[in-house]
Amino acid sequence: MKCTDDSDDRDKLLSKLHEKYYYLNLYEDIKYTGTEKCVSCHNDIGETFHHTGMGSSLYKPEAGNEIEIYEKDNIIYDGKNDLYYEAYRKDGNYFQREFRKDENGNLIHSLEKKVDYIIGSGFNTRSYLYQDNGFFYEMPMSWFTEKSKWDLSPGYQRLNLRFRREINQECMNCHNSYSGYFEFSENKFKMPIAEGIGCERCHGPGELHVRRFTDKDNFFTAIESDTIDRTIVNPADLPLEEKLSVCFQCHLQGDVRVFTDGKKQSDFRPGMKLSDVKTVFVQDDVSEGDFKIASHAERMFLSSCFKNSDGGMTCLTCHDPHVTVGNSTKEFFNNKCLGCHQQNSLSPSKTNVDHKAGSNCISCHMKQGNTSDILHVNFTDHWIRKKTGVESDKISGDENSQADKSVIPVTLKNFEFTVNEKNKNSGLELGIAYVIYYETKHPHQEYLKRAQPLLEAGVKTDPENRSALYYLGSAYYLDNKYSESVNILELLIAKDTGNAEAFIRLGAAYEKSGNTQKAIESYEKALNIFPENVKLLNSLGNVYYSSGKINEAVETYKRGIKIIKDNPIILTNLGDISLYKLENPDAAFNYLNKALEYDPDKKETLNNLGNAYLITGNKNEAEKIFKRVLKLDANNALALGNLAVIYEDNGNKNEAVKMLKKILENDPNDKRAKEMLSKLKGK
Questions:
Q1: At what angle do helices 466-478 and 482-495 cross, to 10 degrees?
Q2: At a CB cut-off of 8 Å and minimum separation 6, what does 3 contact?
Q3: What is the rounded distance in angstroms from the CA atom of residue 389 to the CA atom of residue 318?
Q4: Within this chain, do residues 361 and 406 fall inside the same structural domain, yes or no?
Q5: CA 279 to CA 423: how far, in whole Å?
Q6: Distance between CA atoms of residues 277 and 265, nearest Å
Q7: Are residues 338 and 241 in the same domain?
Q8: Is 161 in the same domain as 259?
């Protein structure tokens, strides 16, 4: 249905008021108009909202919004990976550079990326994005406002993804307005992207609302007598769950999000229940003291204030989303508390509390502390506590403090924020959650063991559920049950021929089971749906390579490099195939050195480069390269074996023997090392 002047369309649209939809703009064909349209009439609200954390959540860097210090202390060191990072300005633009020095202080690696966007208002942190051909990535350095310092971006202390952390749809949509995500791309968006969360994220698409006040016909006569404007959502008028859902679309992070079959992040519209689009799962055994940067919902639900309010307390009770929190006074928040807690009913006589008029309720009952997932951030814990002496046992701000938390498998539970009818797919969704947790958090076999019976039962109950089929096929694949995976995924693609993810997983299952031709067919079908999937192009190139189709492999790898030129994995594979199959060392050197510009520590690249030097007779350079590998991985069998060959050729028998014994310490059955060692001992 289109929002046109046709009377039949009008009647159908208005009939939605009496069917499923509470607001007319919930209907999927109603279009977003953009914040500029809203601000043209609501300028005062638009101006204050622009300065909130949501309104200033993503934007381009420029001198006018600069808060960082670039003149000093703008270089940080990642000792775990021996990499330096520098943030700086140049010719009116902003950059981050990764570099490394040798023991003499000489520069031996340097990689620079230009900042295209800032993500984060800067109230707590600012992180930085760059885009390559519309693919978005986070950068390694972030600015931490309260401490006025640069440090590694959140999560990078645990795992430094350098310039390759992908900004996926869910990440982008919670930091920005919907930005034309390319389905199945992982991190590609239509350029130019929106800048900042806009009005329509909380009020829904504005097309009908604009028409109501600009059309001259009688389209809206039928609703003029209503008590509220049904063309645009006012969250304050929504029922409890729908009201909370507006905020929880981003402020309920949880540990795993499971989307309803056929739904995605951008399908949520204000006025809906969040559960219509996704189910959020949280760990069942997380300490009550453990709070994160986006765990506002989970924390609020621990509060007696919320539990006992019978729906009277929501996010909007204390927060005006159009005004930045920093502009709200102590008295503003105190009055919110005193609206329920009468001053004369409190206990001023206790020596360890201050309940005198004018005291600060928030400072005692909503503790400030470092979040468990982001360093250097002092944040308000939204668990409102009566016992003011209770301090979190987990609020340390040290990401590594919870690094070993998932060694023992955790139990996931559905985060329920109202008492609703039992979701008939609750077991199925829990099964999906365990598969996602296995792939994204902790690959413990127990999660697959829990997931499979839940998914099998779900598929039996709801055989048309495509998410159930995909995740059951994935669970089988991850559990090395390749024939079962193929059977389930074939059922799925028969129902959903446009599901690129299903074709990718099916191709991987065929590849693992040895059916190369079927793997190629599945990968090609996925690429027909989204041709710019660079990871998939690499996988397809690998299948061609392993099956002896060298020309096809080269062509496929080159397709990937045309899309993302600095992909070190594909460059390494091109170097490998040039060296060993095409017997073109010059091309191999070119590809491998280019790969090392983007990833100087990739062991596969270094081993291939060392072999290239060996093949061309440059043993000295080869030795240096293999020693670099051993600095990264002291037990690397390829580097140890090649060094043994070099030492033997140079007449250094003792060093050769040492290398071979090291190999056999790690793998006593290494046949080549045994033969070479026996040969050396016989000399």
A1: 160
A2: 9, 13, 29, 30, 31, 207, 208, 211
A3: 23
A4: yes
A5: 10
A6: 7
A7: yes
A8: no
> Please, which residues bridge with residue 278 across strands?
259
pTM for the predicted model, two decimal places? 0.91
The mean of the pLDDT values for the chain is: 89
Q: Is 142 exposed, middle or buried (0-12, 13-18, 19+ CB in 10 A)?
A: buried
As a whole number of Å, the CA-based R_g of the chain is 29
Q: What is the pLDDT of residues 192-247, one digit of tens each?
A: 999 999 999 999 999 989 988 887 665 666 566 567 888 899 999 999 999 999 99
- Alpha carbons 258 and 359: distance in angstroms, whole number: 43
By residue range, what is the domain housing residue 93? 57-165
Q: How far apart are CA 150 and CA 142, in angstroms?
A: 6
**Domain assignment present for 436:** no
Say whether both 22 and 63 belong to one domain.
Answer: no
Residues 136 and 104 in one domain: yes
Q: What is the pLDDT of residue 225?
A: 59
Hey, how many other C-beta atoms are within 10 angstroms of the C-beta on 224? 9
* Strand ranges (E), 248-347: 256-259, 278-283
Asked if residue 407 and residue 268 are part of one domain, the reply reads yes
Domain total for the chain?
Answer: 3
Query: In sequence order, what E strands does 315-456 have?
Result: 368-370, 378-380, 412-414
DSSP-assigned beta bridge partners for residue 279 = 258
Q: How many helices (H) and strands (E) does the chain have?
A: 27, 16
Give dist(CA 557, CA 607) in Å, integer.
20
Tell me the residue type at 530: F
- Distance (Å, whole) CA 337 – CA 171: 33
Band of pLDDT at residue 154, cut at 50, 70 and 90: very high
Residues 395 and 410 in one domain: yes
Q: Considering only CA atoms, which of 516, 508, 500 is closest in space to residue 476? A: 508
Q: Examine residue 331 and state whether it is found in any structural domain, yes or no.
A: yes
Domain boundary among 123, 143, 165: 165
Tokens of 273: 């229940």
Place of tokens 């992207």: 193
Tokens of 584: 């073109």
Measured CA to CA, the distance from residue 264 to residue 258 in angstroms comes to 10
Is 121 part of a structural domain of the chain?
yes
b/e code 481-496 from CB counts within 10 Å (16+ = b): bbebbbebbbbbbeeb
Higher pLDDT: 88 or 403? It is: 88
| C-alpha separations of 202 from 173, 197, 234, 238, 415 in Å | 13, 9, 8, 12, 21
The Cα diameter of the chain in Å comes to 102
Label residues 584-610 b or e (16+ Cβ within 10 Å = b). ebebbbebbebbbebbbbbbbbbbbbb
Strand 107-114's sheet: what is its strand order?
75-78, 83-90, 93-101, 107-114
Query: Exposed, middle or buried, 364 (CB in 10 Å: 0-12/13-18/19+)?
Result: middle
Token pair recorded at residue 663:
């190999």
CA distance 498 to 586: 42
The answer to whether residue 157 is domain-embedded is yes
Residue-by-residue DSSP string for 125-186:
EEEEEEEETTEEEE-SEEEETTTTEEEEPTTTTT---TT-EE--HHHHHHHSS---B-TT-S
In whole angstroms, what is the distance from residue 595 CA to residue 573 CA? 10
Residues 216 and 365 in one domain: no
Q: How far apart are CA 677 and CA 658, in angstroms?
A: 10
Q: 262 — phi, psi (to 5°)?
A: 85, 0
